[in-house]
Design brief:
The complex is a heterodimer of chains A (about 325) and B (about 375). Chain A is mainly alpha-helical and about 325 residues long. Chain A has helices spanning about 5-45, 55-75, 75-80, 80-110, 120-140, 165-185, 190-200, 200-205, 210-235, 245-260, 265-285, 290-305, and strands at about 145, 155, 160-165, 240. Chain A is built from 12 helices and 4 strands; from the N terminus they run H-H-H-H-H-E-E-E-H-H-H-H-E-H-H-H. The N and C termini of chain A lie far apart (about 70 Å). The relative contact order of chain A is 0.19. In chain B, the strands form 2 sheets. In chain B, strands 1-4 form a two-stranded antiparallel ribbon. A two-stranded antiparallel ribbon of chain B has the order 2-3. Classes of the chains: A mainly alpha (about 325), B mainly alpha (about 375).
Chain lengths: ~325, ~375
């Protein structure tokens, strides 16, 4: 009973549980940002391009999730076996988003590989505008709903509520990040990716197929964004065609925060951003929630331009 | 890198081209399939295949087609005297617009004038100095709000509120640029984008000052010596005067020592600093000078609408102004004016297919970057490096 606790302690208890609650919300949000940030970070590491369309891939992932899950529910697969329907939804969304990423690179970025830096950036903004409006025209401008299959089931821990969905979002994100880290560090393709990131010409001279590496980068990045989008669709339940822009910008911020091109940096940057947003939103002001990402970005870039885990770039003459 | 792949592909026979187009169309309609269903995807397939087959045969001639467009600056195409006549005639035409056009067209023309000033201002930052600013709408917003607040809260008239707003916004441009200019290339772009978003969020949430999303209304029309500019035509002439003023000043500054320093920084920052150009100072001037014009456009916009709200200053607004500069040709004043005119007038003409306008803008940007990255009237010499 709250009445039995002295006021001062009660205040503390209340504050602590609120703090922990926001910590969990922030971790959930942050791991989603981290998943999207990985795609930005990998593409920037290899092409030095801010892939503005990446946020739209995340949005497409959320839409595909709703479309395929709706389809499976309609044919009765969900009623037959929910895990199977969910797994198929995930697989199909990832396949489609990866295909979108692959196609976007082939159409909008590949012809501009040797163009001035501004051209692919503008092209990326063009793709982003195109995809947003494409989805708005085909799927309608109203919110889409993901059926609440998990509800608010969860467990209590130290007077803090954590849903199973939140837990699975965090766990899935962490597993995926470790898989990616393993892929980039140990496999042949991962080594090729790191080589291309360091020096494209040198890598091609020693027999790395640059086009394949870039395509694989886009496939993986888009696949991760699709999973992030799908999990957010389940978490919030609502999806709209413009969610990609804000999430994309924030994820890019996370990537820069951690040091662009670094996988560990994208992970920690994303989680840090999620925490700052949810704690700042509850303790400072929720109206400026979207501004924290940018303020944090500006501060980090001014204090440590290479990000927390990156190296500051020196300009070569 | 790219050549090794293209050599593996089948020869460019007509069957090969047809097959490739069909495969591409099939792939794209496969991507389209989940969004709208099977029947729409089939229609989509045929549409894409048709477009691809036709454009494939066009690609062969695309070099000739783009070669026919003026690849040098407009002034290189026409001799100087003829160019002068052309410019004089277009000013004459602009001055005559209210005589024959209806209110709707004058309204569009006023909007076009405001966007020309904006695009010219951004051209100073992107085109002359080579700094990509994705948050130009922030300066536009500060100018508009400074005018609106000075007018409604302090009781300033047009001719006192506008200069005050110019001074304030130029200062704001200066202050925002100080931290941002330590960054280069893409990082600068993303930080300016951040400034744009923060500005919009502040305007949206600082209810006691800006009245939040409701905006500020009840702004009076400007007047010249107690003669109010009540008709659209009179306001149009005010905007036209501002446009001519901005073109004149920007041309003069472009040709001055400062303008040449900007171009030197754009071409090679290190080399220019070796030559004794204080790059940071000149970049600051560029930001402040650009902000000045954004503020002028903001004041004119607010006085025209008699209302201002954060809705008008989104990221899309910044992107639209960047598009005007890039479509016209980075660094070319004539080109930027034409780019702004096209991007204001074309959407007005396409009102019936309003829903598809943004779709076309997105696709158009990609195509422009692939086929004509220097814009319609940009010189080949324009380079923008990280």
């Amino acid at each position: 009973m709250p009445g039995e606790i002295p006021p001062k302690q009660r205040f503390f208890c209340y504050n602590l549980s609120m703090f922990l609650q926001q910590l969990i919300n922030g971790l959930t949000l942050g791991s989603v940002y981290a998943l999207i940030a990985l795609g930005y970070s990998m593409v920037y590491g290899i092409l030095e391009l801010i892939n503005f369309a990446h946020g739209e891939i995340y949005m497409l992932g959320a839409y595909f999730g709703i479309i395929f899950f709706g389809l499976f529910t309609a044919v009765g697969l969900t009623a037959f076996s929910l895990p199977l329907a969910l797994a198929l939804t995930f697989v199909l969304s990832v396949i489609f988003c990866a295909s979108y990423g692959f196609t976007i690179e082939k159409i909008a970025y590949k012809p501009l590989r040797n163009a001035p830096r501004l051209s692919p950036l503008i092209s990326a903004i063009g793709v982003s505008i195109f995809l947003q409006n494409f989805v708005m025209l085909t799927q309608g401008a109203t919110d889409k709903v993901f059926p609440p299959i998990f509800g608010t089931a969860g467990f209590r821990f130290l007077s803090v509520q954590m849903t199973y969905l939140q837990l699975s979002i965090i766990v899935v994100s962490v597993i995926l990040m470790f898989c990616l880290r393993f892929f980039v560090r140990k496999t042949r393709m991962g080594k090729a990716m790191r080589a291309v990131a360091q020096d494209k010409v040198m890598a091609s001279l020693v027999g790395v197929n640059i086009d394949t590496v870039i395509s694989v980068t886009f496939l993986i990045g888009s696949g991760l964004a699709a999973i992030a989008g799908l999990m957010v669709a389940m978490y919030y339940g609502l999806v709209n065609y413009f969610i990609g822009y804000v999430a994309g910008i924030k994820a890019f911020t996370a990537a820069v925060l951690g040091g662009i091109g670094s996988i560990r940096g994208a992970m920690l940057g994303g989680i840090l951003l999620g925490l700052v947003e949810s704690l700042g939103g509850s303790y400072i002001s929720s109206e400026y929630k979207d501004a924290y990402a940018f303020i944090l970005l500006i501060i980090v870039l001014l204090v440590k331009p290479g990000g927390l885990f990156g190296k500051a770039e020196l300009e070569k003459v | 890198m790219a050549t090794s792949v293209s050599q593996k592909r089948p020869a460019r026979t007509s069957e090969g081209v047809l097959l490739k187009s069909l495969v591409a169309a099939l792939w794209l309609s496969f991507l389209f399939l989940p969004l709208k269903g099977l029947s729409a995807a089939v229609v989509f397939f045929f549409a894409v295949a048709l477009v691809l087959v036709f454009s494939r045969s066009l690609v062969k001639y695309h070099k000739t087609i783009t070669g026919m467009l003026p690849s040098v600056r407009l002034s290189g195409l026409f001799p100087r005297e003829r160019m002068r006549i052309l410019i004089f005639l277009s000013f004459l035409f602009a001055a005559a617009v209210p005589l024959f056009a209806g209110d709707y067209y004058i309204d569009v023309a006023i909007l076009a004038g405001i966007y020309i000033i904006l695009a010219l201002g951004l051209n100073v930052i992107i085109g002359f100095t080579g700094l990509l600013n994705l948050g130009f709408a922030a300066f536009y917003a500060i100018g508009a709000y400074a005018y609106a607040l000075l007018h409604t809260k302090m009781g300033f008239g047009f001719w006192t509120a506008m200069p005050a707003s110019l001074v304030l916004t130029t200062l704001a441009g200066f202050l925002l640029a100080v931290p941002a200019l330590r960054l280069r290339g893409d990082y600068l772009a993303i930080v300016t984008l951040g400034f744009g978003e923060i500005t919009r969020l502040i305007l949206n949430n600082w209810d006691s000052l800006t009245q939040g999303p409701n905006g500020i209304s009840g702004i009076a029309r400007p007047e010249i010596i107690s003669f109010p500019l009540n008709t659209l035509a009179s306001y149009y002439y005010l905007v036209l005067c501002c446009v001519i003023f901005s073109i004149f000043i920007i041309r003069r500054v472009h040709a001055s020592r400062i303008g040449r320093a900007w171009i030197a920084i754009r071409e090679d920052e290190i080399a220019s600093s070796v030559l004794g150009i204080h790059a940071t100072a000149y970049k600051l001037y560029a930001f402040a000078f650009g902000a000045f014009w954004a503020s002028l456009a903001g004041s004119l916009f607010t006085a025209k609408m008699q209302f201002v709200s954060p809705e008008s200053f989104t990221f899309m607004e910044s992107v639209l102004i960047v598009c005007m500069v890039i479509l016209g040709g980075l660094g070319s004043i004539t080109g930027v004016v034409i780019g702004a005119l096209i991007l204001v007038i074309l959407p007005e003409m396409l009102r019936e297919v309003q829903l598809y306008r943004m779709l076309a803008l997105g696709a158009g940007l990609v195509l422009l970057m692939i086929f004509r990255p220097q814009g319609l009237f940009g010189g080949k010499g324009v380079s923008l490096r990280g």
